[in-house]
Amino acid sequence: MGLILMKFLLTLLLIFSVQSLTKADDVSDFEIEGMSIGDSLLDFVKEENILAEIEANKYMYAYASDKFGEVYINDRSFDKYDTISVFVKTRDKKYTIYRISASIDVTENMSKCNSLMKQVSNEFSSIFIEAKKQEFSDNHPVDETGRSKSKTISFIMKNKDVAGIQCNDFEESLRKKNNWFDSFTVAIQKKEVEDWFKGK
Q1: In a 10 Å sphere around its CB, with 0-12 CB exposed, 13-18 middle and 19+ buried, how is residue 87 labelled?
Q2: b/e for 135-149, b at 16 or more Cβ within 10 A?
Q3: How many other C-beta atoms can be found within 10 angstroms of the C-beta atom of residue 156?
Q4: Do 141 and 109 touch, CB atoms closer than 8 A?
Q5: Of 46, 54, 157, 189, whose CB count within 10 A is highest?
Q6: Long-range Cβ contacts of 67-72 (<8 Å, 24+ apart)
């Protein structure tokens, strides 16, 4: 009887372990400030604010269709991050979240960005066990002079959803002109948003 019970418990343990690993490679199971991919943005932001933000930010995506819109959440404070934006489909009345991006101002301390990047990369490696990890550094695309830099670590899931970490170091005059800040950013998104960014 004891052996049967032990086998039963071992089987349960293996089942739960497999389920845990499977869930770990789903970006929808990861939260940023209480929000997850698949949540309704209406649980966090009023509809009139969502519509106003989509309208205010659409100029940044003039190259793409109006399938998605970006909403900056400005009417609440956050525990860890300074700014948060999300992407929703413009014609979805539930305003389901497809992308969440959260940033910390590291203008006065870029070494902090590198430290945070290493810390979160280690966390993502343990969470998204089966994801493909990619790292690259490049000139930031918003700066034609090539003096603004970005470093990115991406964790690409089997379904092509992505969890990413980025450090952005803008050229000083460009940063001040646009009222930007050097940032550490964590983002999670569905493949559909990535395809939209690329014009697919």
Answers
A1: buried
A2: eeeeebeeeeeeebb
A3: 17
A4: no
A5: 189
A6: 67/196, 68/98, 68/99, 68/193, 68/196, 71/41, 71/45
Q: Over range 82-93, report the average pLDDT.
A: 96
Q: Which helix (H) or strand (E) holds 151?
A: strand 149-156
- pLDDT tens-digit readout, 19-33: 333 345 789 888 999
Phi, psi of 109 (to 5 degrees): -160, 75
Q: Whose structure tokens read 């003096």?
A: 147
- Quote the pTM value: 0.81
Q: What digits encode the pLDDT tens for the residues 135-184?
A: 999 998 888 889 999 999 999 999 999 999 999 999 999 899 888 899 99
What 3-state DSSP class applies to 130?
Answer: coil
Q: Identify the H or E element spanning 188.
A: strand 183-189
Residue type, 59: Y
d(CA 86, CA 76): 14
- Rounded Cα distance, 65 and 101, in Å: 20
